[in-house]
Write a structure and sequence with these properties.
Elements lengths: L10 H13 L49 E2 L2 E6 L5 E6 L2 E2 L4 E6 L2 E7 L6 E8 L3 E8 L7 H12 L5 E4 L1 H4 L5 E9 L9 E9 L11
Antiparallel strand pairs: 1-4, 1-9, 2-3, 5-8, 6-7, 8-11, 9-10, 10-11
Protein name: DUF6046 domain-containing protein
Organism: Epilithonimonas hispanica
InterPro entries: DUF6046 (IPR046109)
Length: about 220
């Protein structure tokens, strides 16, 4: 990312400050190995090269030229939206990679029914499975080599208009067997003095399509 995109300041430091201002939390940048207080001696070290599988997520590059370890993509396709008259219609969406400055949090609960036991301590637990994944997506829309900050915000708002689930791609989702989400809340924030920085927070839940067949008799 060019320095002028963030006011001529050190970008890595500014990103942490922007996350803290917008969301109250800042990512940690580790520039040295944890616990290392002195220079490591490498005498006698004989490096070797070996082939190693590279995760497909690492193909996408950030504006710094570094690989994005867990990129997230909204999969394009035909989705249902509502027109001005409230009638459903199909709309075509293109694939959209979320900004590199994106953080995702996951939480999930079990569906547990507790029954009190008269005259005894504790409860009887009946577990009937798991609840949906609750997903919080926080991102900073910045001017990068793909889109402007305002273009990111407009496209994400357009995706929020979908009346149904959104197909997602990325190992951070697939490792949890999440391939479709429903966006329930969309919040556009602002940062004072930074018109080219648009914080956006999305709340979503995992979605597993279920097909119901009706037999006419």
């Amino acid at each position: 990312m060019d320095s002028h995109l963030l006011g001529g300041l050190d970008n890595r430091a500014v990103l942490g400050q922007l996350f803290r201002t917008a969301f109250g939390v800042a990512p940690i940048y580790i520039v040295e190995p944890l616990g290392k207080t002195k220079e490591i001696k490498i005498e006698g070290f004989n490096p070797s090269v070996k082939d190693e599988f590279i995760n497909e997520d690492q193909v996408l590059k950030s504006v710094y030229g570094t690989p994005i370890i867990f990129p997230i993509q909204f999969r394009g396709g035909d989705y249902t939206v509502y027109d001005w008259y409230g009638k459903p219609k199909m709309k075509r969406y293109d694939d959209l990679w979320l900004p590199a400055t994106t953080m995702v949090d996951f939480s999930r609960a079990k569906n547990v029914i507790k029954t009190n036991v008269l005259g005894a301590n504790g409860t009887i637990k009946e577990i009937f499975g798991f609840d949906d994944w609750n997903i919080r997506i926080r991102m900073l829309c910045l001017n990068d080599n793909r889109f402007k900050a305002r273009e990111y915000a407009d496209m994400l708002q357009d995706w929020f208009e979908i009346a149904g689930g959104v197909n997602v791609f990325g190992s951070i989702f697939s490792k949890k067997e999440i391939y479709n989400i429903v966006v329930e809340d969309f919040d556009i924030k602002s940062v004072t003095g930074s018109p080219d920085v648009i914080p956006i927070e999305m709340s979503a839940v995992s979605n597993e399509p279920v097909e119901i067949f009706l037999n006419k008799q």
